[in-house]
């Protein structure tokens, strides 16, 4: 493969994912660990391991798909499905959407710093605290019962790694799902739950390409998780469904809309997108906003500037101000991506940091 942008994006995502998927085996011990992952690994390295430690997540891929109505092929909700109205009257569920005020947050993994130190550094630089702190948990490894470094006034966003859909839909994972539900309930704080993200890519074991090219079974798995969380009383969890900004492969079966679990099972709609090839915020995010923004609050659940950082951050700030459906922006803030020529930190130069500070301190980011 040459330097064609789509191929470059896939390689970048895959390398990041490989890093993410190779670190977590060490997580089986009873100590809180950060799991990240959202980027793709080379075909030769597909891993079934849970997902990693301090390794970054997502990246971009090719052209954004057109906005399409959610697939009618998706399974219908079971008779006793919990609906938004029974869970909460607020748009956004247990983490309410505030019109006109976007929450600001980050996944933080800064080389040589603990999470607490990283949060303190950003607080000093920005003059404000994070509203959302993003963490990654493995599918069947150690999941903590608390996050003491995350301030009680902050919202915890958990990206919980997915698994092969068959191992969920056949009931064999029910005990693991219930255990995680009880742990998150026990944290007694609002949590944004982002399970099985970027399912419309071809770089994770939980995506359509690795599960028979049948998105209806992803929907079935999502709804099973949702039901088990409800049965265990995890009503502090807001569900974030989060595709990649574009689908790969771009075949009709793999359009992100076909993976949508249904309005009764989703509180926030997320999207991953990075400007690896200098894509504009509109190019990265408009398809998802157009498809769901009138019904659900939108969270940019993974994003960061790679090219022309200061310029792109200013563009993002303007785009969010002009897009009222956006209720949260979560930066992928890390510089520890071995083997990857990208530094996702917003403070790599003074102009980028100034633009970032201006953005997150604007009234639009006061959620």
Which key features would you list for this structure?
9 helices, TIM Barrel, alpha/beta, 367 residues, eight-stranded parallel barrel, disordered N terminus, 8 strands, 28% helix
What does this structure look like?
- Helix 5 crosses helix 6 and helix 8 packs parallel to helix 9 (350-360).
- The protein has one domain (5-62, 76-365): TIM Barrel.
- It contains nine helices and eight strands.
- It is of the alpha/beta class.
> With helices defined by DSSP (H or I, 4 residues minimum), what is the helix count?
9
Q: Helix and strand succession?
A: HHEHEEHHEHEEHEHEH
Task: Bin the strand percentage.
Answer: 5-15%
Which structural category fits the helices and strands?
A: alpha/beta
Largest sheet: 8 strands, parallel, barrel
Strand segment count: 8
In the CATH hierarchy, what is the class?
Alpha Beta
> CATH fold name, please?
TIM Barrel
| Integer count of domains | 1
Portion of residues within helices = 25-40%
Our measurement of the CA-to-CA distance between the termini, rounded to an integer number of angstroms, reads 44 Å
**Main sheet: strand order:** 1-2-3-4-5-6-7-8
CATH architecture: Alpha-Beta Barrel
